[in-house]
Specification:
This protein is an all-alpha fold. Helix content is about 65%, strand content about 0%. It has two helices and no strands. It has helices at about 5-25, 30-65. Helix 1 (about 5-25) packs antiparallel against helix 2.
């Protein structure tokens, strides 16, 4: 996974954490709430990007596997027990 794709979202999360801390220290609840909302959405976006990458990698791996003509026949497949 290329971490460079996640860098903008990591920076947004950093800004969100700074906003939460600043909101607590300055006593401004609106800034704190906005920081939490930003943190949640940036975190969800990171999860989405990572899961999309994993899905594409799985699809690529699945497209490269070969199933022989006996893959769906239990009597001739890899687990054939000599019946």
């Amino acid at each position: 996974m290329d971490v460079k794709k996640l860098f903008p979202y990591i920076m947004v999360e950093t800004v969100a954490v700074l906003a939460i801390v600043a909101g607590f220290l300055l006593g401004i609840p609106l800034v704190t709430i906005a920081g939490f909302i930003l943190l949640i959405f940036a975190g969800l976006r990171i999860v989405y990007v990572v899961l999309t990458h994993v899905r594409h990698a799985a699809e690529e791996a699945a497209s490269q596997t070969r199933l022989g003509p006996t893959a769906n026949d239990p009597d001739k497949g890899p687990f054939h027990q000599g019946r």
